[in-house]
Amino acid sequence: MKNFVEELRWRGMLQDMMPGTEEQLTKEITTGYLGIDPTADSLHIGHLCGIMMLRHLQRCGHKPIALLGGATGMIGDPSGKSAERNLLNEETLAHNVACIRKQLEHFLDFNSKEPNAAELVNNYEWMKDFTFIDFARNIGKLITVNYMMAKDSVKKRFNGEFSQGMSFTEFTYQLLQGYDFYYLNTHKNCKLQMGGSDQWGNITTGTELIKKITGNEAYAVTCPLITKADGGKFGKTESGNIWLDRRYTSPYKFYQFWLNVSDDDAKRYIKIFTSLEREEIESLIAEHDAAPHLRTLQKRLAQEVTVMVHGESDFNAAVEATNILFGNTTADALRSLSEEMFLQVFDGVEQYEVSRTELEAGIAPLDLLAEKTNIFPSKGEARKMIMANGFSMNKEKLTDPQTPICARALLNNKYLLFQKGKKSYYLVIAK
After folding, report:
1. With contact defined as beta carbons under 8 Å apart, do 422 and 326 qualify?
2. What's the CA gap between 81 and 162, in Å, rounded?
3. How far apart are CA 263 and CA 361, in angstroms?
4. What letter does residue 74 receive in the DSSP assignment?
5. Which residues, 6 or more positions from 195, have their beta carbon under 8 angstroms from its beta carbon?
6. How many other CB atoms sit within 10 Å of the CB of residue 160?
7. Coil, strand or helix: which one is 323?
8. Of 45, 30, 35, 99, which Cα lies nearest the Cα of 71?
9. Residues designated as active site
């Protein structure tokens, strides 16, 4: 077995670790779990570091358990939150759990015949019949309020760092998460819990419960919270989260996110978010440093993560779309794009509508560019750029300002793509 702790260490994924953890992991196959609250029906890349911990655990020969918080998701973890989350109903949570289950299959092997096959569990299964009185008598009495108040996630909410206090519902979250660890320890022989560094307080509550109830040893490992080199929040863009589900973030935009990270971030992210071995990553970094303008690291990072999440075909389509937008591509390549991918690539491009009837009859280029649309402020400017060979339609130079533009030029029988210079695109839609 590979040394899991050392794997995390060189990848920059090790923040805190309980004493004895590394010795336990080098001694025998160890079952470890990581919890995910199903607050949405898709994971986003903020979840990826934790999921990669599970992936690396399995690759190092140990058994990973992904715990979906069907019960704890009804409450909401206060760690790092300034306000209480909206509570989700049972039906919504069941839907979210089913969707996340499918996504996790891209990262973990649940079907292996080996003893370290991944498992998926839902804490709603063992919490749904647990009465409040039973929980208070059997679990609540074991952990003091003083102990719970000492946790950072609780102190921050009481010491005025955030604007709101904390409800009893949220206050009990660490007990519920601690009970999860105890339950998995006694029913699945799970000895390790993993999570982000903001989970340390919740995780150690679990180890404390296990020791008090059973006397068993339990261990913990956390990864650092991922940030960008400039200090910005990882995974956030102007349009919001980068999701793993194509309904919310297209494979093209997903690929573009990784392709456009900074050099410093690429050097960290390729260790954290891929399964490439150390020697290959070091070779890629050296190659990148020798010719940074080629963006070797970003391209390989984007490839590895996009293939892992969306598959080879979506990755290839994203590369083709990128070449169309930023490279010297052909009109045939543009026409080969599906309408879905075409719209993803040119999302946000300035759009205009024209009458399909007029296009079928044919519209003079200067009329289309300066009157039917505002691509040019005047016919004179449009003529000047066309004659200077600086204007394209559907990735082919538009050289004649007189020949009418007709409906047969439409892409997907609906669109005309105009390009002014290298980067200015305009989309004309036939209605």
Report:
1. no
2. 9
3. 51
4. G
5. 34, 35, 50, 202, 203, 222, 223
6. 8
7. helix
8. 35
9. 39, 44, 47, 81, 85, 177, 198, 233, 236-237
**Residue type at 278 in one-letter notation:** R
Burial class (CB in 10 A: 0-12, 13-18, 19+), 122: buried
Cα separation, 283 vs 93, in Å, equals 44
In one-letter notation, the amino acid at residue 60 is C
pLDDT in tens, the chain (431 residues): 799 999 999 999 999 999 999 999 999 999 999 999 888 899 999 999 999 999 999 999 999 999 998 887 666 555 555 444 556 777 888 889 889 999 999 999 999 899 999 999 999 899 888 888 888 888 888 887 777 777 676 766 666 554 566 777 777 778 888 999 999 999 999 999 999 998 898 899 999 999 999 999 999 999 999 988 877 778 766 667 899 999 899 898 899 999 999 999 999 999 999 999 999 999 999 999 999 999 999 999 999 999 999 999 999 888 888 887 776 667 787 888 888 888 888 877 889 999 999 999 999 999 999 999 999 999 999 999 999 999 999 988 999 999 999 999 999 899 999 998 877 889 999 98
Would the pTM count as exceeding 0.70? yes
Distance of CA 239 to the CA centre of its chain: 14
Q: What are phi and psi of 354, to 5 degrees?
A: -135, 165
